[in-house]
Amino acid sequence: MPGTVFWTAFSLLLFACSSVALKEKIKIKPPRLSRGWGDRITWVQTYEEGLTKMKASKKPLMVIHHQDDCPHSQALKKVFLADKSVQKMAKEDFIMLNLVHETADPNLAPDGHYVPRILFVDPSMSVRADLTGRYSNRYFTYEPADIFVLVKNMRKAKILLREEL
User: What are the distances in angstroms from CA 139 to CA 23, 45, 105, 143, 149?
Assistant: First the structure.
């Protein structure tokens, strides 16, 4: 009859094999580019990709700066996701990018680095400083109650683009 050492070794080997098999069954999915802002929207991965697609499509680029651990970003994300007109315009009329890290382009922080911050870039590569939120100390921030201002600015970005083409 096998001894205790045999059964201990056998148990460890069985445990190791089963945990490897379990790891192979669990597929780790990469994080989605939407980061919860709308899975039906096509998101670009980088600012550079956004600029390239913007020029090719002649659609404005909408850049959302946010942080996963920021309660203001999370609150705005919920309202953004729930608003059907915002989701529809984002999907159909814009090249969309959301960033949790700052870019090297200082034009995307015209009044500082804060979150949430939403800026629009037109195909001429100009950041639209005329499309701002309600606050004089942080021009490009939006709060959940400001979703109507964001909708208005999205519509303006589309109209301005048509007028300038």
Answer: 47, 25, 18, 12, 12
Q: Write the pLDDT tens digit of every residue in 36-78.
A: 999 999 999 999 999 999 999 999 999 999 999 999 999 999 9
Which of 119, 96, 94, 90 is CA-nearest to residue 46?
A: 96
pTM given for the model? 0.80
CA distance 77 to 158: 22
CATH 1.10.10.10 for domain 47-164, yes or no, is no
The two tokens of residue 82 are 């729930």
What distance in Å separates the CA atoms of residue 55 and residue 165, rounded to the nearest whole number?
12
Given the DSSP bridges, would you call strands 95-99 and 61-65 parallel, antiparallel or unpaired? Answer: parallel
* 60: nearest Cα among 141, 124, 142: 124
The domain limits of the chain are 47-164
